[in-house]
Write a structure and sequence with these properties.
The protein is of the alpha/beta class. It has helices spanning about 35-40, 50-55, 85, 90-95, 105-115, 190-195, 220-230, 250-260, 270-285, 300-310, 330-335, 360-375, 390-400, 415-425; strands at about 5-10, 20-25, 25-30, 75-80, 100-105, 125-130, 135-140, 140-150, 155-165, 165-170, 200-205, 240-245, 265-270, 295, 315-320, 350, 380, 405-410, 440-445. It folds into 2 domains: about 5-215 and about 390-445, Ribonuclease Z/Hydroxyacylglutathione hydrolase-like (Metallo-beta-lactamase, Chain A); about 220-380, Metallo-hydrolase/oxidoreductase (Rossmann fold). The longest helix has 16 residues, at about 360-375. About 50% of the residues are buried. It binds zinc ion. Zinc ion (ZN) binds near residues 83 and 173. It is found in: Cytoplasm. InterPro entries: Metallo-B-lactamas, RibonucZ/Hydroxyglut_hydro, RNase_J, RNase_J_2, RNase_J_arc, RNase_J_b_CASP.
């Protein structure tokens, strides 16, 4: 059976991920993501009403016109998890394919939100829920399986395409977490079996986000205990404490909510995306934040919540807000600019439970936001966080576990691939032979 892989997006950047695997006449598409930084750099662009081709020209969504070169039918569109760089282009591209969107319950809930917000295209692909550990037939000879992995969002899976030539494992995005706070640990046992059974692993596509970092990415439970330590140190403070994190990082939001209560404060989620993601997590039953947790997304209800906090005393609350990267329109940035009713005073504490995404626009905006907060006297606790992506020892362990015949580094640019290429070469892989360093818009014929 011919096996061909199209590296459509996310092979020159972290963002707009999209990869297609053709096995004989059947094609499965993994991820359809958005590169948000290409959107945010323009003032006031609303992507909801924009045409796909304009977004492709901006470099914001994958250029899927290369799909015309693949001879086969798309049988499934499979987003691996709910981050925008993996699902953000579904509402712009999926309607062109006569295929269901297959995803885990949390991811599917977020995809529904994307489709509902879309104004230009009507996306009516079937939405099929599939849990980790389950399989689905693709045509007559191929099977799709979801393996449970751990990442900085719940419901992450690695899809595996079992073909007569061996398994194609799509490894985006993950870290190896054996104590992930919410959900099951990464299913290394299943990966070990896949590496040993049948024809073994034909090809592995790897998440190279942190490939240039040595050592091992710690578990979410490490971030949780660090956060606990930081918040307990503030227990006696009788002024304002504000926290920010990735709205999609439900495990972290859960920890913030719990520790707020531990130190006698009422947590309140503020900002549109906080309400969206935590609401989705509650709907699928991943968390139960109980009825007394306030979540406010719309501007007016957020304003009212801030007024209530000021009236009842900031020492009684922990606002958990958007704006961890200093995004100009996010809640924390607005607080820094003094645009909300919340009054920051000398000695008030701001916890960034997030790293800075290493990208110049982000770095500049985050710097500005911190400066604005400092100018009002805020004390900054930054980087109370662990990454959701494997570092080198995790990559080594995955190679050892899967023993793939072919490797394709993804989710980075050429510079970002370099650490992975060195590691793979040290394990006997050869560039141009079985180690395929590539860019957007290429096809790689693995089996002729
Ligand atoms: Zn991700």
């Amino acid at each position: 059976m011919e096996i061909e892989i199209a590296t459509i997006g996310g092979y020159e950047e972290v963002g707009r991920q999209m990869t297609a695997v053709r096995a004989g006449d059947d094609i499965v598409v993994f991820d359809m993501g958005l590169n948000l930084s290409k959107v945010l750099i323009h003032d006031n662009i609303e992507t909801e009403g924009m045409h796909s081709l304009d977004l492709i020209d901006m470099g914001a969504i994958p250029d899927d016109r290369i799909m015309n070169d693949l001879e086969g039918d798309v049988q499934a569109i499979v987003p691996t998890h709910g981050h925008l760089d993996h699902i953000g282009a579904i509402s712009k591209l999926a309607h062109r394919y006569d295929a269901p969107i297959v995803a885990s319950p949390f991811t599917l809930e977020l995809v529904k939100g994307q489709i509902e917000g879309e104004q230009k295209f009507g996306v009516d692909n079937d939405l099929v829920e599939m849990e980790a550990g389950e399989t689905m037939d693709i045509g007559d000879d191929v099977e799709l399986e979801f393996v449970n992995v751990t990442h900085s969002v719940i419901g992450a899976i690695n899809p595996v395409l079992h073909t007569p030539e061996g398994a194609v494992v799509y490894g985006l995005d993950k870290r190896m977490d054996h104590d992930p706070v919410i959900g099951d640990p990464i299913d290394m046992e299943r990966f070990r079996e896949i590496g040993r059974e049948g024809e073994g692993v034909l090809c592995y596509v790897e998440d190279c986000t942190n490939a240039n970092r040595k050592g091992r990415t710690p578990s979410e439970s490490v971030a949780r205990s660090e956060l606990k330590d930081v918040m307990q140190s503030m227990e006696d403070y009788d002024g304002g404490i504000v926290a920010t994190t990735f709205a999609s990082h439900i495990a972290r939001v859960k920890s913030l909510v719990e520790f707020a209560r531990d130190i006698g404060r009422e947590p309140i989620l503020l900002g549109r995306s906080m309400e969206q993601y935590s609401g989705a997590a509650e709907r699928i039953g991943a968390v139960s934040f109980t009825n007394d947790l306030g979540m406010f997304g719309h501007r007016k209800s957020v304003d009212r919540a801030f007024e209530r906090i000021m009236n009842e005393g900031k020492e009684n609350f922990l606002p958990i807000v958007t704006g961890h990267q200093g995004e100009p329109r996010a809640m924390l940035t607005r607080m820094g600019r003094g645009e909300t009713a919340y009054d920051l005073e000398e000695g008030d504490k701001v916890i960034f439970s997030a790293g800075i995404i290493p990208e110049p626009t982000n770095e500049g905006q985050r710097y500005q936001s911190e400066q604005l907060l400092r100018m009002q006297g805020a004390r900054i606790y930054d980087d109370v966080h662990v990454s959701g992506h494997l570092r080198q020892e995790g990559h080594y362990q995955m190679l050892d576990t899967l023993q793939p015949d072919h490797l394709i580094p993804a989710h980075q640019n050429m510079e970002g691939f370099s650490g992975y290429v060195s590691l793979a070469e040290s394990q006997g892989y050869e560039v141009g032979h079985d180690l395929h360093v590539t860019s957007n818009g290429n096809t790689i014929q693995i089996v002729e």
